[in-house]
Amino acid sequence: MPELRQEPITNNWVIIATERSKRPSDFPVQQEKRKGGKCPFCEGNEGKTPPEIVSYREGGTKADTPGWWVRVVPNLFPALSKTGNGVGNGGLDGESVDLFVTKPGIGDHEVLVESPDHNSSLDTHTPKQVIEIFYMWRDRYQALLNEKSIKYIQIFKNEGAIAGASLEHPHSQLIATPLIPPVVSEELNGAQEYYQQQGKCIYCEMIKHEKEDSRRIVADNQDFLAFCPFASRFPFETWIIPKEHQAGFDLINDSQLENMGAIVQEVTRRINGSLNGPPYNMVLHSAPVGNSDAAQYHWHLEILPRLTIVAGFEWGTGIIINPTPPESAAIYLRETNTDNSQEKERTLWQQVH
Amino acid sequence: MPELRQEPITNNWVIIATERSKRPSDFPVQQEKRKGGKCPFCEGNEGKTPPEIVSYREGGTKADTPGWWVRVVPNLFPALSKTGNGVGNGGLDGESVDLFVTKPGIGDHEVLVESPDHNSSLDTHTPKQVIEIFYMWRDRYQALLNEKSIKYIQIFKNEGAIAGASLEHPHSQLIATPLIPPVVSEELNGAQEYYQQQGKCIYCEMIKHEKEDSRRIVADNQDFLAFCPFASRFPFETWIIPKEHQAGFDLINDSQLENMGAIVQEVTRRINGSLNGPPYNMVLHSAPVGNSDAAQYHWHLEILPRLTIVAGFEWGTGIIINPTPPESAAIYLRETNTDNSQEKERTLWQQVH
């Protein structure tokens, strides 16, 4: 029968819908038609973006010319603006009754172009290139920490049109917000409650438990653990978490960054190998600005394959239906043989059921 | 510049992204290819579903034969099961550590087939048929109120594959849960807080304000108001709310049901006329079981067109980016001329901007 599972940090619920149990081949991922060719993020087209904020580039080359391998530009259509003269309770339409509160949309919105090559991706980059991308994530994260009126820094990556990517050239994004977002507050409150009761970081405890249990582990290296969380909302959802306690992503050191690059590439290869290159969101969860050394919080990266649809039931209740138990998902991801994934899959399904 | 808006009940935030401002023609809705033909919900195929729970049918016809106009059957792949021998903390995999809490997936999952005709829909049914559908919603809602261990009853409708409909035959669904879902708790807590401070139902206050303001109103009849909420998460999001204070949907009377049918049909016609038949979720929000007469809560129906993608930023923060201000959406919906919507739209866009 179906099982309700409670997410230990936020106390939200998911339904693991065993009546609908799904293996990888039940999610027929249609390869999106790629436009290919030259886009504004391609090498040689630097003039088609706003001037770059920063880039990693060969010595002697100039800003906004070729020679870079990771390049950051402002988003042309920012969700939040760097500057503005808006005032709260009124910007858009002058409304200011008690019931309706507004805030000017001040913040920042950057695009991190992950490669000069339009057709590369996290699983096909050189290992060195993946590490360079995360060096840039840290650089931008640290830089934004010092911007006035920024309370939270959200770095994320949308892969595939179904997951929200409007440009196919590999890129991630950073949106900095002038308030602590509700999902972050929810996690902080849950972690704080656990810390007060148990005197421990709940994420550190989760790492310990997942390692002992081992059924949900996807990958493991010196500094990081990758696992399908107990209360996975999405089929094949995978979290990547530093083994050492760190609340803010800005605290990651160089050697950890290199192991982060390695495990992210391994996990994306396992996901792509199992599921034929599915759309996914990759979402950094980190402490709010000024809380990077918090004892109760622990930054991590969530990879959310978008194989199911969040529909009426989910919007009404907040309870997400997931047809694939994380214990089954982890077996597929661990055992994925990218050379011959279909044959492998049949055998595995027999083992699981 | 963009504007952050706070939802008055839950205190969640949305970004009205004016830099990305979108009118109806910016959302090219591709008509989904309809399979048509006979499906398990079609008249004459009653044997292809589990035995019916209840139906409205012509006198003298038997259950599970033709002659019905609204028919309710159990979902073949229930998200929650009516019965089961599962026990908490263990059903699926015997896990029972403190960190990980489970609950058996007991509840109910029904399909309400809205018409014998495969190709009909809310906007093309006769007005009488739409009203009959909502009579059935009330009947099933009232019936489930008496089931043991049910704490919440979620009725919803997914229209279009992108919004999660796996069968195109018009139908809505009911999932009854053994706990009060987080979205519902959030609304109840917010409404309770307002009630304690102001001694009034926040939804009643919202109705009053929207009527006075009038910019966001989409439709209006004797018993119901339809408006685009101030903190709309989705372009063209529309709420339909009874003007009389009612916490539980089970309390709706016959004459109100008829006006509910009328306004829902009007709003779906306006949405389809403006947006070329977009996918949408229609979601009932009602008081939990046992709280139908609560002074602080107010049931309503939310229609959520699925024209944008909830992506990495939204999953990380809970802040949803909406490129269409509700004030603009309401103008389009109010003024929609379904005979000549493109011409109308151009004129309107000039008025708005």
Account of the 3D structure:
In chain A, 49% of the residues are buried. The C terminus of chain A is likely disordered. Chain A has 353 residues and is an alpha+beta fold. The first copy, chain A, is built from seven helices and 14 strands. At the A-B interface, strand 1, strand 2, strand 5, strand 7 and strand 8 of A face strand 1, strand 2, strand 5, strand 7 and strand 8 of B.
From the 3D structure, determine the CATH topology of the largest domain in chain A: HIT family, subunit A
Strand content of chain A: 15-25%
**Radius of gyration based on Cα positions of chain A:** 21 Å
* Number of discrete domains of chain A: 2
SSE-based structural type of chain A: alpha+beta
- CATH-level-2 architecture of the largest domain in chain A: 2-Layer Sandwich
Oligomeric organization of the protein chains: homodimer
* Unreliable residue runs of chain A: 86-92, 340-353
Report the major sheet of chain A. Answer: 10 strands, antiparallel
Identify the most extensive interface between protein chains: A-B, 84 and 83 residues
Summary, kept brief:
Two copies of one chain form a homodimer. With 353 residues, chain A is of the alpha+beta class.
List the helices and strands and how they pair.
The structure is a homodimer of 353-residue chains.
Chain A lengths: L2 E4 L6 E4 L37 E4 L10 E7 L26 E4 L3 E6 L13 H19 L6 E8 L11 E7 L4 H17 L3 H12 L3 E4 L3 E4 L10 E5 L11 H22 L4 E6 L14 E6 L6 H6 L2 E3 L3 H10 L5 H12 L1
Parallel strand pairs in A: 2-14
Antiparallel strand pairs in A: 1-2, 3-4, 4-6, 6-8, 7-8, 7-12, 9-10, 10-11, 11-13, 12-13
Helix pairs in contact in A: 1-4, 4-6, 6-7
